[in-house]
Amino acid sequence: MKLRIDFYDFRDSDAPLADVATALDIATIAAEAIHGEDRVRIETRCDLDPRDRCVKIDTGTVVGRHVSRTFAGSLRPLSGATAFAIDRLESATAEEPEPQREHRRCRNCGGTHHEHRPPREPSPSLNGHVAPRGRHADEAHR
What we know:
Helix content: 25-40%
Largest sheet: 4 strands, antiparallel
Structural class: alpha+beta
Mean pLDDT: 76
CATH topology of the domain at 2-92: Alpha-Beta Plaits
Oligomer: single chain
Number of strands: 4
Distance between the termini: 41 Å
Order of helices and strands: EHHEEHE
Number of helices: 3
CATH class of the domain at 2-92: Alpha Beta
């Protein structure tokens, strides 16, 4: 997994930080309208540093990239295209293994839920055929 951060630098700009904060709020609200408030709160990290006059946005997720793009677009009318510099910081981190899905075990036989299923009764709506189930169910009717 890579760590990606868009770094917006306003040190050489006279843009008011109130305008920068407004643009960040606009970008966050726009992302909430598309992705939902909860997802934005979970997947987005933004930091406005008034002392260093910079904004850092974690763009490691789709939502973070959306916020960053909308933020850049929101700044243009407020402070002009040359009022800030953008740098993208990327660093490689150790790959995290995919979490393994645990299968439920049957209390009676110890088999997984894939192995231990009771037989299905024929459905009257299918003229006596048993309705297929599982991920290959659509292939049974071809």
